[in-house]
Amino acid sequence: xxxxxxxxxxxxxxxxxxxxxxxxxxxxxxxxxxxxxxxxxxxxxxxxxxxxxxxxxxxxxxxxxxxxxxxxxxxxxxxxxxxxxxxxxxxxxxxxxxxxxxxxxxxxxxxxxxxxxxxxxxxxxxxxxxxxxxxxxxxxxxxxxxxxxxxxxxxxxxxxxxxxxxxxxxxxxxxxxxxxxxxxxxxxxxxxxxxxxxxxxxxxxxxxxxxxxxxxxxxxxxxxxxxxxxxxxxxxxxxxxxxxxxxxxxxxxxxxxxxxxxxxxxxxxxxxxxxxxxxxxxxxxxxxxxxxxxxxxxxxxxxxxxxxxxxxxx
Length: 314
Known about the structure:
Order of helices and strands: HEHEEEEEEEHEHHHHHH
Number of domains: 2
CATH topology of the largest domain: Lysozyme-like
Low-confidence stretches: none
Helix content: 25-40%
């Protein structure tokens, strides 16, 4: 016969107490794990990704430093902003005791409201994917309400030259941004008018895109390739061909086969950027040669294959 050292009721009570303590401890541990920091393991990284920022968009403010800073930082009816603002050295509203410098208004990790309704390549609503830089400059462009019959006389742009000191700051800033954002290829350094051609004209035809390209920033054509197309073009391509070429470069243009209002707006933007001596919205041999020289340099694949954009040259 086995004799128990303690009554069964006492053992049962001890077991019950033990189970209750274990359950209480488990609940406490669960509570701590929920309120404490989440443990995240990063040892397995996917290669199926790219950078958020794909575009650099350049603007001018069309107003002085003081008004620009207020418009881009304070609440108002327009509610606009930019990641960076660069003043002019000779602006009388800029503090005389301050060295000319770049002002960051929105962190690059956040969305600035600078692009508006916009499109480039296969993307739209580009605030999410771009860095916006505003340059203080009093330029503006206007379209005639009643257009002249002759092409090339319907836009008036009064854009002062950009401040050399301002451009030096811009160059340093752009090189820094490009070094950190490899997704921004040369054809993705664009004007506000490139991504919103029916609404915007900035930074206008006086902005020195070729000078910027000589600093290693943005796109520009090679002179020998331009000459090859300019001398060899037999005829101006039809509207559909030009629309396809502009679309391949990046512009948000529909291929309608008609030289319509959207086509003229896009061509005006293209000419402001690459043919500033011919901002007419009309096709001519120089504009066509520039466009195809750019395609050959940056999108050579577009000039071969079943959907080839290649031109027949003399």
